[in-house]
Amino acid sequence: MLPLPKPQQCPMDAKARTAPGTAVPLGRFRRRHRQGGFTLVEVLCALVIVTVGAVSMGLLATRAMATGRLSKYMSLASTLASEKLEDLSRWPVTDQHICVPTGSAWMGDLGSDVLQSVTCPAGTNSVSISYYDDVSISVTEPGDCPNVSVGCFAETIWNGSQYTTTYHSPDGVVQTNNNAVANMTFHRRWMIEADTPVTGVRRVTVLVTLMDQTVQPPVSFQMSLVRP
């Protein structure tokens, strides 16, 4: 008779059975333990990634806020420069606010505050003119406005001798008060150059600078026009 073949053992049963008193191989224990959670290195790497992302988002938000604040001040500075140029354009050619005396090439200065006595070539009386001022723009309480139902914004100007606050309402009503005092926000200087860029005309230049030194980079805006 031929011998019967021996029964085959299942590979899984052979791996699963361990004789009593036999130690479990260390490699098998480590593999099973690693499959059950995260290692300390993996947790630390995840924390580093999350921290870097959070810091980056915070820096991005801070940068966006600073850029928005800078844009706001730059827009206000350009508006104030345009406003002053319009104010200087309304004066007659022979008025002391806009004329350049005979023998002078310019009046005012963009680098320093100038207060000067001016006599126009037409022979008008000598008048002391300041070529600078300080300006503050703010939204005021309704009780200070010409029309309390619609509100207003206030523009306060210091010309070196007195404060003048002008209240502008959306309905077009304007009211002026000479006693108001406010914290100034912008400083304006202007100069008037005779026969520039050609003979017979004058160039008027206005420089507006933000007085708040905490805003970086510093905000300044310069604008010019040519008039008779």
Helix-strand blueprint:
Elements: H1 11-16, H2 26-34, H3 40-89, E1 106-108, E2 115-118, E3 127-130, E4 132-139, E5 153-158, E6 163-168, E7 174-177, E8 186-194, E9 202-210, E10 220-227
Antiparallel strand pairs: 1-8, 2-3, 4-5, 4-8, 5-6, 6-7, 8-9, 9-10
Features of this protein?
single chain; 228 residues; alpha+beta; 8-stranded antiparallel β-sheet; two-stranded antiparallel ribbon; elongated
Question: How does this structure look, described?
Answer:
The chain is of the alpha+beta class. The chain is built from 3 helices and 10 strands. It has helices at 11-16, 26-34, 40-89; strands at 106-108, 115-118, 127-130, 132-139, 153-158, 163-168, 174-177, 186-194, 202-210, 220-227. The strands form 2 sheets. Strands 1, 4, 5, 6, 7, 8, 9 and 10 form an 8-stranded antiparallel sheet that branches. It is elongated, with a radius of gyration of 39 Å. Residues 12-16 have low confidence and may be disordered.
End-to-end Cα distance, whole Å, is 133 Å
Total domain units: 1
> What's the main sheet like?
8 strands, antiparallel
Q: Determine the number of helices (DSSP H or I, runs of at least 4 residues).
A: 3
Q: What's the overall geometry? A: elongated
- Radius of gyration, taken over Cα atoms and rounded to an integer in Å: 39 Å
Structural class: alpha+beta
Element-by-element helix/strand order: HHHEEEEEEEEEE
- Stretches where pLDDT is under 50 for at least 5 consecutive residues are 12-16
Beta strands, count: 10
> Helix proportion of residues, in percent?
25-40%
Strand content of the residues, in percent? 25-35%
Oligomer: single chain
Query: What's the pLDDT, averaged over the residues?
Result: 82
